[in-house]
Amino acid sequence: MISALSWVPKGAAKAIPDRAKLPSKEEIEKLEESCEFYSEDEEEETDDEEENGDVAHAKAIAKEFGKSSKSKNASSSSSSMEVDEVADGLKELDMDNYDEEDDAPGLGIFITPVMRWIHISRTIYDIYVCEETSNGSPNIYSHQEILLPKPPMCTAWLDCPLKGGEKGNFVAVGLFKTHAIEIWDLDIMRELLPCVQLGGKKKGVSSLYFGLVATRNVFVNLLSRLLSKKYREGSHTKSVIGLAWNKEFRNILASGSVDKQVKVWDVATETCQITLEHHTKGVQAVAWNHYAPEVLLSGSFDRTVVLKDVRKPSHSGFKWSVISKVESLAWDPHSEYSFLVSLKDGTVKGFDVRQASTSTSDSNPSFTLQHGRKAVTSISYNVSAPNLLATGSTDQSVKLWDLSNNEPSCIATHRPNAGRLFSIAFSTDNPFLLAMGGLMGKLKVWDILSDTNVSSRYGSRQVRP
Predict the structure, then answer these.
(1) What is the secondary structure of 244-312 as a DSSP string?
(2) Which residues lie in Basic and acidic residues bias regions (predicted)?
(3) What is the b/e burial string over 302-324, where b = at least 16 CB atoms within 10 angstroms of the residue's CB?
(4) Helix, strand counts (H, E) of the chain
């Protein structure tokens, strides 16, 4: 199952990734003091939205992965190891010589500027390379895997230089029934631990992975469970289910959670800067404005969308009521004032913030489009072609829409054979490639210009650099 995906911009990754270093005994001890530990005995989250199915695809993800994780870990769940044993065990893996396996002599991975990455969320977090070819069809292959302790709910790519330099290549991940946000360095192969953790429990061990690597198999054993009820300062207290990176202020990340809160984080200092509590149920979607990067949208299961200027967090902001639970949000990349909200009832509504004149806005939407009768879980604007929108739904279909003059018309329908869809995204480098992921766990990429109706409208249009 693919619960979330994001494109990594062309040229953002290192040409030759670094190799992970094994954590020392001191690093493991430090980890115990600073990070949360994930346990199968974690307390249940009992908010209405989870008990009544408001996080429908979240439960589906948990159920799907629960079956495999229990069977894989059954034999090891009763065992535990001391810190010294963990360090010794990691050394025995001899990860430094892993690439010298006889079945893959001289194999190396090189990321060049003509390649793009797609990272997708499963229990094993996959990073794929999408390579351009002479015939126009992308060549997609797996680049590396990151082992996660629980199913990921949401992701956000960011290039904040957390390790120095001018840029970085990182992904933030929110995990199911976990209070922390993990940030992983995508330029390190076979990393065992996240480089940053935002929030989480105050003590215990988080994401401590004992990776036993054989020639063709990867076995993951989670080690000793330490349960602490105390949270680190500023932490969410329930699952993080929405993330958004601020491209202008590159150290800033927004998060939404089942705990009903929206938080703004400084990933460089690993601290929560702002906590907003304007929703009455879980917050599934957050989105920064492209033109006014201090402006943040949040969408909730309480059937509202709220706009806030984070420079004035005490201001009530502007609120729009919608008729169904919010699935996702997107700002129009071609307009400072327009945004979309997709809903559980199968509709997508467009709004113009200039029509919001009070803190509680009852303004009608600029338009409403009906994808179908099932939830529209993901939407993606095309950055090259104004008014071109893709919608993905749990009815297993993707639809393309022309939103010109606020009169949406469906111009193409595609069924990617990926099951119920949970995430779709246009590439920013080749904006006519659409990545799609869903219940079946198969990453799909659709060249939308292969549809004659789409190519007749947009085939001759120049791609914006």
Answers:
(1) EE-SSSTTEEEEEETTS-EEEEETTTTEEEEEE---SS-EEEEEE-SSSTTEEEEEETTSEEEEEETTS
(2) 54-67
(3) bbbbbbbebeebeeebbbbebeb
(4) 5, 32
Q: CB burial class (10 A; 0-12, 13-18, 19+) of residue 336?
A: middle
Residue by residue, DSSP assigns 401-421 as EE-GGG--EEEEEE--S-SSE
DSSP state of 231: B
Asked whether 1 and 61 are in contact (CB, 8 A), the reply is yes
Structure tokens at 31: 């980890």
Q: Which residues form the domain of 105?
A: 5-458
| CATH code at position 57 | 2.130.10.10
Contact 155, 6 (CB under 8 A): yes
Within a domain: residue 465?
no
Q: Which residues contact 298 (CB under 8 A, 6 or more apart)?
A: 242, 254, 256, 262, 276, 278, 279, 283, 285, 286, 305, 306, 308, 329
CB 86 within 8 A of CB 223: yes
Give the number of other Cβ atoms within 10 Å of residue 6's Cβ: 21
Per-residue pLDDT tens digits for 380-398: 999 999 999 999 999 999 9
Q: Got the DSSP string for 322-354?
A: -SS-EEEEEE-TT-SSEEEEEETTSEEEEEEGG
Q: Which of 36-40, 107-111, 269-273, 378-382 has the lowest mean pLDDT?
A: 107-111
Query: Domain tally for the chain?
Result: 1
The 10s digit of each residue's pLDDT in 451-465 is 999 999 987 544 443
User: Given this model, what pLDDT does residue 12 score?
Assistant: 87
Q: How far is CA 293 from the centre of its chain?
A: 20
Between strands 360-361 and 318-321, the pairing is parallel
pLDDT confidence bin for 30, thresholds 50/70/90: low
**Does residue 121 fall inside a structural domain?**
yes
d(CA 223, CA 279): 37
CA distance linking residue 31 with residue 327, whole number of Å: 35
Residue 112: pLDDT band with limits 50, 70, 90? very low
Mean pLDDT of 156-181: 91
Tokens 């908010």 identify what position? 47
**Does some domain include residue 244?**
yes
CB–CB of 7/157 below 8 Å? yes
CA distance 76 to 172: 29
Separation CA 459–CA 451 (nearest Å): 10
Residues linked to residue 172 through DSSP beta bridges, in sequence order? 156, 183
Instruction: Decide if 464 is inside a domain.
Output: no
